[in-house]
Automatic annotation (TrEMBL):
Protein name as annotated: Carbon-nitrogen hydrolase
Top-level taxon in the UniProt lineage: Bacteria
Alphabetical keyword list: Hydrolase
One of the record's GO molecular function terms: hydrolase activity
Length: 291
Protein backbone atom coordinates (compact mmCIF):
# COMPACT_ATOMS: atom_id res chain seq x y z
CA UNK A 1 0.00 0.00 0.00
CA UNK A 2 1.32 3.42 -0.95
CA UNK A 3 1.14 5.73 2.01
CA UNK A 4 2.59 9.23 2.33
CA UNK A 5 3.01 11.32 5.45
CA UNK A 6 2.29 15.01 4.93
CA UNK A 7 3.15 17.84 7.30
CA UNK A 8 0.90 20.87 7.74
CA UNK A 9 2.51 23.98 9.21
CA UNK A 10 -0.02 26.51 10.53
CA UNK A 11 1.73 29.53 12.01
CA UNK A 12 1.50 33.24 12.73
CA UNK A 13 3.85 35.75 11.10
CA UNK A 14 5.59 39.02 11.95
CA UNK A 15 6.92 41.98 9.98
CA UNK A 16 10.41 40.44 9.94
CA UNK A 17 10.92 38.38 6.79
CA UNK A 18 14.01 36.53 8.04
CA UNK A 19 12.32 35.74 11.34
CA UNK A 20 9.39 34.20 9.49
CA UNK A 21 11.65 32.15 7.24
CA UNK A 22 13.67 30.91 10.21
CA UNK A 23 10.47 30.01 12.04
CA UNK A 24 9.14 28.12 9.03
CA UNK A 25 12.39 26.15 8.80
CA UNK A 26 12.08 25.25 12.48
CA UNK A 27 8.53 24.05 11.84
CA UNK A 28 9.67 21.99 8.84
CA UNK A 29 12.22 20.34 11.11
CA UNK A 30 9.48 19.60 13.65
CA UNK A 31 7.31 18.05 10.95
CA UNK A 32 10.20 15.95 9.64
CA UNK A 33 10.95 14.74 13.17
CA UNK A 34 7.35 13.52 13.32
CA UNK A 35 7.84 11.56 10.12
CA UNK A 36 6.62 14.00 7.46
CA UNK A 37 7.74 13.28 3.91
CA UNK A 38 6.02 16.27 2.26
CA UNK A 39 5.67 19.55 4.21
CA UNK A 40 3.33 22.32 3.09
CA UNK A 41 3.78 25.88 4.33
CA UNK A 42 0.99 28.46 4.26
CA UNK A 43 0.51 31.16 1.64
CA UNK A 44 3.10 34.00 1.73
CA UNK A 45 4.62 32.63 4.93
CA UNK A 46 7.65 34.97 4.95
CA UNK A 47 5.54 38.05 5.75
CA UNK A 48 2.37 39.38 7.22
CA UNK A 49 -0.51 39.26 4.76
CA UNK A 50 0.31 42.62 3.21
CA UNK A 51 -2.51 42.70 0.65
CA UNK A 52 -4.85 44.38 3.13
CA UNK A 53 -3.57 47.72 1.79
CA UNK A 54 -2.35 49.06 -1.55
CA UNK A 55 1.16 50.16 -0.62
CA UNK A 56 4.01 50.34 -3.14
CA UNK A 57 6.55 49.71 -0.38
CA UNK A 58 5.22 46.18 -0.03
CA UNK A 59 6.71 45.26 -3.39
CA UNK A 60 10.06 45.26 -1.58
CA UNK A 61 8.99 41.98 0.03
CA UNK A 62 9.16 40.17 -3.33
CA UNK A 63 12.08 38.04 -4.46
CA UNK A 64 13.21 35.92 -7.38
CA UNK A 65 12.19 32.27 -7.56
CA UNK A 66 14.56 30.48 -7.40
CA UNK A 67 16.08 32.95 -4.97
CA UNK A 68 17.12 33.48 -1.35
CA UNK A 69 14.18 31.70 0.31
CA UNK A 70 14.24 28.71 -2.01
CA UNK A 71 18.02 28.49 -1.62
CA UNK A 72 17.66 28.24 2.15
CA UNK A 73 14.81 25.75 1.94
CA UNK A 74 16.62 23.55 -0.58
CA UNK A 75 19.38 23.01 1.96
CA UNK A 76 16.80 21.98 4.56
CA UNK A 77 14.90 19.73 2.14
CA UNK A 78 18.10 17.88 1.24
CA UNK A 79 19.27 17.61 4.85
CA UNK A 80 15.95 16.22 6.08
CA UNK A 81 14.97 14.27 2.98
CA UNK A 82 11.59 15.99 2.74
CA UNK A 83 9.63 17.70 0.00
CA UNK A 84 8.84 21.36 0.81
CA UNK A 85 5.95 23.36 -0.69
CA UNK A 86 6.84 27.03 -0.26
CA UNK A 87 4.47 29.89 -1.12
CA UNK A 88 6.35 33.13 -1.89
CA UNK A 89 5.93 36.63 -3.34
CA UNK A 90 7.75 36.39 -6.67
CA UNK A 91 9.49 39.25 -8.44
CA UNK A 92 9.67 38.01 -12.01
CA UNK A 93 10.99 41.20 -13.59
CA UNK A 94 10.98 44.92 -12.91
CA UNK A 95 7.33 45.79 -12.24
CA UNK A 96 6.11 42.19 -12.74
CA UNK A 97 5.08 40.16 -9.70
CA UNK A 98 3.27 36.91 -8.95
CA UNK A 99 1.86 34.97 -6.00
CA UNK A 100 3.89 31.81 -6.51
CA UNK A 101 4.57 28.46 -4.88
CA UNK A 102 7.88 26.67 -5.35
CA UNK A 103 8.26 22.92 -4.93
CA UNK A 104 11.52 21.48 -3.63
CA UNK A 105 12.16 17.75 -3.81
CA UNK A 106 13.56 15.57 -1.04
CA UNK A 107 17.07 15.73 -2.51
CA UNK A 108 16.96 19.54 -2.48
CA UNK A 109 16.22 19.84 -6.20
CA UNK A 110 14.07 22.74 -7.35
CA UNK A 111 11.22 21.11 -9.29
CA UNK A 112 9.50 24.26 -10.46
CA UNK A 113 6.74 26.66 -9.51
CA UNK A 114 3.05 27.32 -9.82
CA UNK A 115 1.78 30.88 -10.19
CA UNK A 116 -1.62 31.62 -8.67
CA UNK A 117 -4.23 31.82 -11.41
CA UNK A 118 -7.23 33.34 -9.65
CA UNK A 119 -6.50 36.72 -8.06
CA UNK A 120 -9.01 38.30 -5.64
CA UNK A 121 -9.77 41.97 -5.19
CA UNK A 122 -11.91 42.28 -2.08
CA UNK A 123 -11.79 44.60 0.94
CA UNK A 124 -8.55 43.70 2.82
CA UNK A 125 -7.55 41.32 0.00
CA UNK A 126 -6.27 43.71 -2.68
CA UNK A 127 -4.20 41.12 -4.50
CA UNK A 128 -4.74 42.50 -7.99
CA UNK A 129 -2.70 45.52 -6.94
CA UNK A 130 0.31 43.25 -6.42
CA UNK A 131 -0.04 40.06 -8.43
CA UNK A 132 -0.21 39.33 -12.14
CA UNK A 133 -2.37 36.25 -12.84
CA UNK A 134 -0.36 33.09 -13.36
CA UNK A 135 0.69 32.19 -16.90
CA UNK A 136 2.17 28.74 -16.33
CA UNK A 137 -1.18 26.99 -16.31
CA UNK A 138 -2.05 24.35 -13.74
CA UNK A 139 0.84 22.24 -12.55
CA UNK A 140 1.71 18.91 -11.03
CA UNK A 141 5.13 17.97 -9.69
CA UNK A 142 6.62 14.49 -9.54
CA UNK A 143 8.33 14.37 -6.16
CA UNK A 144 10.14 11.48 -4.51
CA UNK A 145 7.02 10.48 -2.58
CA UNK A 146 4.06 11.39 -4.81
CA UNK A 147 2.92 13.42 -7.79
CA UNK A 148 1.47 16.52 -6.18
CA UNK A 149 -0.82 19.24 -7.45
CA UNK A 150 -0.45 22.74 -6.00
CA UNK A 151 -3.04 25.50 -6.10
CA UNK A 152 -3.07 28.70 -4.03
CA UNK A 153 -5.79 30.18 -1.80
CA UNK A 154 -8.34 31.90 -4.08
CA UNK A 155 -7.92 29.01 -6.52
CA UNK A 156 -9.64 26.90 -3.88
CA UNK A 157 -13.08 28.20 -4.85
CA UNK A 158 -12.84 26.96 -8.43
CA UNK A 159 -13.73 23.35 -9.26
CA UNK A 160 -12.28 23.86 -12.73
CA UNK A 161 -8.80 24.39 -11.26
CA UNK A 162 -8.92 21.30 -9.08
CA UNK A 163 -10.40 19.19 -11.86
CA UNK A 164 -7.66 20.10 -14.34
CA UNK A 165 -4.97 19.50 -11.73
CA UNK A 166 -6.46 16.10 -10.91
CA UNK A 167 -6.68 15.22 -14.60
CA UNK A 168 -2.95 15.92 -14.85
CA UNK A 169 -2.39 13.02 -12.48
CA UNK A 170 -2.09 14.64 -9.06
CA UNK A 171 -2.01 12.11 -6.23
CA UNK A 172 -2.60 14.82 -3.62
CA UNK A 173 -3.95 18.38 -3.91
CA UNK A 174 -2.26 21.04 -1.76
CA UNK A 175 -3.65 24.50 -1.03
CA UNK A 176 -1.40 27.01 0.75
CA UNK A 177 -3.83 29.71 1.84
CA UNK A 178 -4.31 32.93 3.84
CA UNK A 179 -7.87 33.72 4.83
CA UNK A 180 -9.51 35.07 7.94
CA UNK A 181 -12.36 36.85 9.64
CA UNK A 182 -12.87 40.57 10.05
CA UNK A 183 -12.95 40.92 13.83
CA UNK A 184 -16.09 43.10 13.72
CA UNK A 185 -18.15 40.24 12.24
CA UNK A 186 -20.68 38.20 14.21
CA UNK A 187 -19.97 34.58 15.03
CA UNK A 188 -22.66 33.18 12.74
CA UNK A 189 -21.08 34.92 9.75
CA UNK A 190 -17.67 33.64 10.82
CA UNK A 191 -18.85 30.05 10.92
CA UNK A 192 -20.72 30.33 7.62
CA UNK A 193 -17.57 31.63 5.93
CA UNK A 194 -15.31 28.96 7.40
CA UNK A 195 -17.77 26.17 6.60
CA UNK A 196 -18.02 27.36 2.98
CA UNK A 197 -14.22 27.43 2.70
CA UNK A 198 -13.79 23.94 4.09
CA UNK A 199 -16.75 22.49 2.21
CA UNK A 200 -15.65 23.63 -1.24
CA UNK A 201 -12.22 22.10 -0.77
CA UNK A 202 -13.54 18.83 0.61
CA UNK A 203 -15.80 18.69 -2.44
CA UNK A 204 -12.71 18.77 -4.66
CA UNK A 205 -11.53 15.60 -2.91
CA UNK A 206 -14.91 13.95 -3.49
CA UNK A 207 -15.29 15.00 -7.13
CA UNK A 208 -11.75 14.05 -8.09
CA UNK A 209 -11.02 11.15 -5.77
CA UNK A 210 -7.80 12.64 -4.39
CA UNK A 211 -6.77 13.72 -0.89
CA UNK A 212 -6.79 17.46 -0.21
CA UNK A 213 -4.42 19.27 2.17
CA UNK A 214 -5.18 22.91 3.00
CA UNK A 215 -2.77 24.97 5.12
CA UNK A 216 -3.85 28.36 6.46
CA UNK A 217 -2.17 30.99 8.61
CA UNK A 218 -3.32 31.92 12.10
CA UNK A 219 -3.21 34.99 14.33
CA UNK A 220 -4.34 38.61 14.42
CA UNK A 221 -3.03 40.99 11.76
CA UNK A 222 -3.99 44.35 10.26
CA UNK A 223 -3.79 46.05 13.67
CA UNK A 224 -6.25 43.53 15.08
CA UNK A 225 -8.86 44.01 12.36
CA UNK A 226 -8.28 40.55 10.87
CA UNK A 227 -8.11 37.18 12.61
CA UNK A 228 -6.67 34.58 10.27
CA UNK A 229 -8.78 31.58 11.07
CA UNK A 230 -6.31 28.71 10.89
CA UNK A 231 -8.49 25.65 10.58
CA UNK A 232 -5.96 23.85 8.36
CA UNK A 233 -7.07 20.35 7.44
CA UNK A 234 -6.38 17.18 5.50
CA UNK A 235 -8.91 14.84 3.92
CA UNK A 236 -8.80 11.43 2.34
CA UNK A 237 -9.84 10.81 -1.27
CA UNK A 238 -13.52 10.80 -0.30
CA UNK A 239 -13.38 14.09 1.55
CA UNK A 240 -13.35 12.63 5.06
CA UNK A 241 -11.50 14.83 7.53
CA UNK A 242 -8.34 13.20 8.82
CA UNK A 243 -7.07 16.25 10.68
CA UNK A 244 -8.52 19.63 11.61
CA UNK A 245 -6.45 22.39 13.21
CA UNK A 246 -7.67 24.95 15.71
CA UNK A 247 -8.69 28.49 14.80
CA UNK A 248 -6.22 30.24 17.11
CA UNK A 249 -3.10 28.12 17.71
CA UNK A 250 0.06 27.44 15.78
CA UNK A 251 0.19 23.77 14.88
CA UNK A 252 2.60 21.43 13.13
CA UNK A 253 0.83 18.18 12.38
CA UNK A 254 1.69 15.09 10.32
CA UNK A 255 -1.06 13.08 8.63
CA UNK A 256 -0.70 9.77 6.82
CA UNK A 257 -2.51 9.59 3.47
CA UNK A 258 -3.31 6.28 1.81
CA UNK A 259 -2.94 7.01 -1.90
CA UNK A 260 -4.35 3.62 -2.92
CA UNK A 261 -7.77 4.86 -1.79
CA UNK A 262 -8.05 7.00 -4.91
CA UNK A 263 -8.40 3.92 -7.09
CA UNK A 264 -10.91 2.37 -4.69
CA UNK A 265 -13.13 5.47 -4.50
CA UNK A 266 -12.89 6.17 -8.22
CA UNK A 267 -13.99 2.61 -8.99
CA UNK A 268 -16.93 2.68 -6.57
CA UNK A 269 -17.91 6.32 -7.18
CA UNK A 270 -16.84 6.68 -10.83
CA UNK A 271 -17.20 10.42 -11.24
CA UNK A 272 -14.14 10.70 -13.47
CA UNK A 273 -15.12 7.73 -15.63
CA UNK A 274 -18.67 8.98 -16.15
CA UNK A 275 -17.78 12.53 -17.12
CA UNK A 276 -19.62 13.71 -20.25
CA UNK A 277 -16.68 15.55 -21.74
CA UNK A 278 -18.56 15.91 -25.04
CA UNK A 279 -21.03 18.28 -23.33
CA UNK A 280 -18.62 20.60 -21.53
CA UNK A 281 -17.69 23.09 -24.26
CA UNK A 282 -19.93 25.86 -22.80
CA UNK A 283 -17.77 25.97 -19.65
CA UNK A 284 -15.26 28.16 -21.51
CA UNK A 285 -17.86 30.95 -21.85
CA UNK A 286 -18.08 33.73 -19.27
CA UNK A 287 -21.88 33.42 -19.13
CA UNK A 288 -24.42 31.64 -21.35
CA UNK A 289 -26.67 34.52 -22.40
CA UNK A 290 -25.99 34.44 -26.12
CA UNK A 291 -23.34 37.18 -26.10
Amino acid sequence: MKKVKVGLVQMSCTKDKQENLDKAITKVREAAAKGAQIVCLQELFTSLYFCDVEDYDNFDLAEAIPGPSTDALQVVAKELGVVIIASLFEKRAEGLYHNTTAVLDADGAYLGKYRKMHIPDDPAYYEKFYFTPGDLGYKVFQTKFAKIGVLICWDQWYPEASRITALMGADIMFYPTAIGWATDQDEETNQDQYNAWQTIQRSHAVANGVPVVSVNRVGFEQDGAMKFWGGSFATNAQGRLLYLASHDQEETEVVELDLTQSDFFRKHWPFLRDRRIDSYQPITKRYLDGD
